[in-house]
Amino acid sequence: MIEQLNLLPLEEFLRKNINIQEAEKKGLIENGNYEKYQLVESLYRKVFETYIESIFSFEKIDQKLKNSPLEYTKIEEEKRDIYQKTSYIKSEYIFIRNFYYIERLNEEQLKIFINHLNNYTQDFESELLEIVKNTFKTILQETTEDGKKPLKVFYGSIDPSYCFSNGALALFINYGRNQSSLEEQSFMENKIKKEEYLDTLALSIEKELSYQLDLPVEMKHYKGKI
Amino acid sequence: MKLNSVKKTIHFDKKKIDNSNIEKKIKLESTVSKNMDYFEKESATKKENFNYDQSTEKKESVSVEALKNRNSRFFGDLYLYDVFDAKHTVFDDWNTKSEQYGGNQRVFREKNQILLKDPAIRRIIKNYYPKATLEDMEAILFSLCNVGCGYTAVINTIFAQYAGREEEFQRTFGFPMYQQDRDGKVDFNYEYLILDLFCYRHKKYKDLTGKFSNIDIIAEHPSSYRDWLVLNMDWASEWFHEKGVDATVSVEAFFDKDLYYDSSINPPYYSQEGCFVKDEETIFKELESLLQDSSKEVIINVGLPNLKGTWQLYDYETGELYIDTNEGHAMSVIGITEDKDLIVSSWGRKFRLHVTDIEQYETFTIVEYKK
Questions:
Q1: Is this complex's ipTM strictly greater than 0.90?
Q2: Across the interface, do B134 and A187 touch by the CB < 8 Å criterion?
């Protein structure tokens, strides 16, 4: 199981407001070693994103974007955000940007996750899914070190375009530069159409997912490196 | 880091200026300054909705009593306007509702379509990157939204200093300091200078990897914000000089510079050991002194890569916690509240920043204007 997981790099965990005390108490961090935390976080993310894919087809969205005459170039692999690189969503354009604070799971729930890491069988999947469905709203909430909940969250650098409401499912649509040299009018027309189409797409995704998850969903579309 | 309590409480807004020249009428001269190359009368404006028709002028009440005579009319694409109440500045509460409490680099993404149509924006980019396509220009503007906080903060200082000197601003930089929309709202023209400074920095100076930034590098958002933490702002001083403004930019760090930055390690390591050379109370007093000096504008640089330690912004009006982050950021420091929070401008909004959040590796950038 472990080899099938896409781990976020350690530096990402060091930057986050993980409740270290709680994580140590639950054995997720041991003597400064975050390995178990990384693994459980990745497994939680895998179960959650797989669940989201079961209720919403991102593959269809990908097909639309790939086949669009507006030319949405896929962003190159090496230029992708680490969350896009480690995403379990089967999409070349869309990924979830939230972090999952799994130290907020209770001991029993964590035990099931850790057992699953060591001894994966499909029998556990429905059990894991049940835990994720009951906890994701708490797990993806950002808090300060002293437990406050800020209104807004920046995912990525401190670009005001990356500002999401705290507690929302944060999605990005990302695409690359075309390196084209279109005439001005064609370029502007194409640009406007592209952005309008993505606005419409984002709205429909937000609405559908928000209804399914009973959670605010925000999607930003971006072009280039995040 | 906690500051010792300071006996003297301070609450001041250093941006208030002399009211003796309010309601003076300013006629824009047709004199074209050396910076006027970008701005020609035939050029389209960047704001598409300024079709203010005097014949149908309504007497609208505005949320603040800043405007006495709204008699703006077009002069080509430049506005002849009456100077608004000179006691209002860019960092006035009057501007907070329109999110114009200082510049806001978000416009480079949100108003991307409008800006790309502006010939002045294009000329600024072409001046530094002559072969830039529209696609390239779009990438530059997006990147500026991403890393533009420091550039915005420097340009904020210009607008703060030139308050009440709009005609001089026009002559120096070649375009109006602001324009008014049909609702009388003043819209400051931050974008041209922010963009110019950004392009100047990337074109003329090497980044931390030792390269000049071509557009591909810019589009990948180089960590140019780190430059604000590296103790060399000579390039910004040189930009002012080229614009004909007698100002210098320096960084005040509260620690031993030699221990600060070690670029030989990947990722670069910012040493915390032996950092403080001044005690906390001294730092606070020095900050007060800087803010009280009308020739100096202060920018605070917070957050640092690779290290944990968050800082928080509180909405000034509501007191709500707006964000908690450890990302690198630069903000204009406008004043100090009675309870010793900093009043800062970020993204065109007014916030409070706890002084106790300033970690030992953060810095202040000082822009000093010599009159």
A1: no
A2: yes
Q: A131-166, pLDDT tens digit by residue?
A: 999 999 999 999 988 888 999 998 877 787 788 999
Helical spans, DSSP H, in chain B: 107-110, 112-117, 119-128, 134-147, 149-161, 166-173, 191-204, 215-219, 234-243, 280-292
Instruction: Specify whether the CB–CB gap between B229 and B328 falls below 8 A.
Output: yes
Q: Of B55, B56, B58, B52, give the one whose Cα is nearest residue B75.
A: B52
Half-sphere exposure in the Cβ direction for B146 (13 Å, CA):
22
Angle at B5 between CA B150 and CA B303, to 5 degrees: 25
**CA A71, CA B314: separation in Å to the nearest integer?**
41
B8: which 2 tokens? 């003297």
Sign of CA dihedral A140, A146, A152, A156: negative
Question: What does residue B179 show for φ and ψ, rounded to 5 degrees?
Answer: -140, 165
B219 close to A (CB below 8 A): yes
The pTM is what? Answer: 0.79
B93 touches chain A (CB under 8 A): no
Residue with tokens 């320096």: B250
- R_g of chain B, CA atoms, integer Å: 21
- What is the torsion angle, in degrees rounded to the nearest 10, for the CA atoms of residue B267, residue B273, residue B278 and residue B284? 60
- Rg of chain A over Cα atoms, rounded to whole angstroms, equals 19
- Domain borders along chain B are 12-50+58-369
CB contact under 8 A, B142 and A158: no
| Residue B296 β-bridge partners | B368
